[in-house]
Design a protein that fits this description.
The radius of gyration is 28 Å and the shape is globular. By secondary structure, the chain is α+β, with helices and mostly antiparallel strands. The strands form eleven sheets. Strands 3-4-5-7-6 form a five-stranded mixed barrel. The protein has a five-stranded mixed β-barrel with strand order 8-9-10-12-11. A five-stranded mixed β-sheet has the order 13-20-19-16-15. The chain folds into six domains: 12-67, Arc Repressor Mutant, subunit A (Orthogonal Bundle), CATH 1.10.10.10; 74-149, Beta Barrel (OB fold (Dihydrolipoamide Acetyltransferase, E2P)), CATH 2.40.50.140; 155-223, OB fold (Dihydrolipoamide Acetyltransferase, E2P), CATH 2.40.50; 244-491 and 557-621, no CATH class; 495-547, no CATH class; 640-721, OB fold (Dihydrolipoamide Acetyltransferase, E2P) (Beta Barrel).
Length: 784
Amino acid sequence: MKRKHDNGFPARDAIVAFIRANPGKIGTREIAREFGLKNADRAELKRILRELADEGAIAKRGRKIHETALLPPTVIADITGRDTDGELLATPTEWDTEENGPAPKIRIHVPRRLQPGTAAGVGDRALLRIEKADDGEGAPYRGRIIKIIDQARTRLLGIFRRLPGGGGLLVPVDKKQAGRELNIAPTDTGGAEDGDLVSVDLVRSRGYGLASGKVKERLGSLSSEKAISLIAIHAHEIPQAFSPSALREAEAAEPATLKGREDWRELPLVTIDPPDAKDHDDAVHAAPDPDPNNKGGYIVHVAIADVAFYVRPGAALDRDALTRGNSVYFPDRVVPMLPERISNDLCSLVPGEARGALAVRLVIGPDGRKRSHSFHRVLMRSAAKLHYAQAQAAIDGRSDDLTGPLLEPILKPLYTAYALVKLARDERDPLDLDLPERKILLKPDGTVDRVIVPERLDAHRLIEEFMILANVAAAEMLEKKALPLIYRVHDEPTLEKVHNLQEFLKTLDLPFAKSGALRPALFNRVLGQVRGEDYEPLVNEVVLRSQAQAEYSAENYGHFGLNLRRYAHFTSPIRRYADLIVHRALIRALGLGEGALPDTETLETLSEVAAQISVTERRAMKAERETADRLIAHFLADRIGATFQGRISGVTRAGLFVKLSDTGADGLIPIRTLGTEYFNYDETRHALVGSRSGAMHRLGDVVDVRLVEAAPVAGALRFELLSEGQVEGKVIPRGRKRDGAKASTRASKSHPGRSPRDKVRKPHKGKSGKAKPGKSKKGKSWKR
């Protein structure tokens, strides 16, 4: 029975209980219907829901309401141990402890009859179906294993260090394995040399003394930076080799023909990509709309490689692609989601070759809004392969032999259509964060040449906006056909993060008056007010940190950053599994032939896929970031003692993180080296503040630092701060010699992954005995 107060209004705990019983499925309307509330009661209901949210009892996820920190019905979790009864315990793999507190425990129910592939142990990672546990036995959730994602590691990755008497030690590169060195017997070194990156099988992990290992594979020497990406690939267990059956399927695949397709080979579609792109999976075309009812409007065609024609549900190629989830991009290599026969050949829209594609025809009005769309399975032939700067140069009056003939018939209509689309985009007012995005360029020998910030051109924005339009059209079409799909979703910031942002902006006398629904425009107004100011980077950084992370979901709660109610990834099926699912759904919805989404794919099964590929996406991002850190640490390792200019990119109780202006490298200034006084962490100001002087070091401050330590294997740098703190805009002078600021070459506690035997580069001195000076230079886009 639904418990109510005497006035007939539902009790607060009854509302929370109803929300708990229907996780992620209800909003204000459903609550009102459940408790028989009339329209006149809506204001009071919203007031109660606001109070519950302020108290932290509930939270909104788009238009849906859920219990705070409630896990979704399907989650990927790491099995961490056993309880006193011997039952397995797990915690969610992706969990924001800063926002939600400690990760909740999940007790795993193991049935008497195990399904194949569900036998798990401690250390495994598994896909779980979970529900709230009401037995009060410590774990708030109980779950059952759907399938094992990763087995517990019996192989470690590390650096081999040879010992004088033969044999050696393995120093793990995983920071979590810090200090857990393995003994390698002389007969088990596998010919490894000192400093080699190796994988080692665990031989003995119990008993007294060091665990033992046997070198299984030599992966390269760290003297070659081409080995650096291998560290991340192996550390994150990113699959490199395709299964033999998948390779056989790829080799047996035949080029697409006109069978079951429209002939678009005469439509002059072009690809516009980065200059070093290996695959080309999207092509575009635009022309004025001849319809007199759409005078001034344009028709935009977006053709996407027909990956679903080659990668069929349940086949070996499909199984391998789902395991990978996405392609992973490193400076020296790509780990593709699909074999090259598919990604770089049959599905690459190269000029002059007939290629199968799934295409969308978008009718754009003179106001830039999409009036209609239709999807087609086609055979196309790309008219040209262009890179961004090349297309932009042609529009700017610097055509070359390739773009000259394309300027009037192809490029100018594309840019005119983009100008219209931009009108609607500006009116929609998505989150306008534009942060520097650096790219590492390598020399032919694999060492770092330089780090650049590519210029952001209208050519980039043109492709981006056309792809967004196509993605929206795909989501709208599948919703219209009532088919399940995987959405690309981005939740609005939590109330706590919005409150923290408000408090921070108060310290800058910047208003952030939230009234009504939260919209990106509210953040854009703040960003517009600080444009051109000294603290513009600081505010951009804090606004970015207030945002949620985009993910994949079979449940739609909109895309806050793009300010779109429905959005799905459709435009890159070569490198993202989510897009492949959307292609299959469109083929099924529109009866476009082979490769359709099977009838067995339901909201439940797609929720499992969405959870899995959200994890693989974050795995790829982490691996790419760690590789960049290691490459830059190698690049800077012989410049110990050099001074650089940078910006404070993070403030914690442990110290200051600084991002260098010229390379984008991140390093730590331990709090103990800041000076003789005690420094307090001011969370609201994002600053460390001196207890006596009030000297403040704040997020976003431009500072000069000296590099005092580099650990290339861990990708870690340590700096000494040279700049002075500020109080109320005034610089607080300090002596050149400061107690506690002496440079140290010892391994820092702030880098838990560093072993005493890990190579740490010490100051490199010239003939004078002084550290060699280094060059200092004064010094993108938010992901959708």
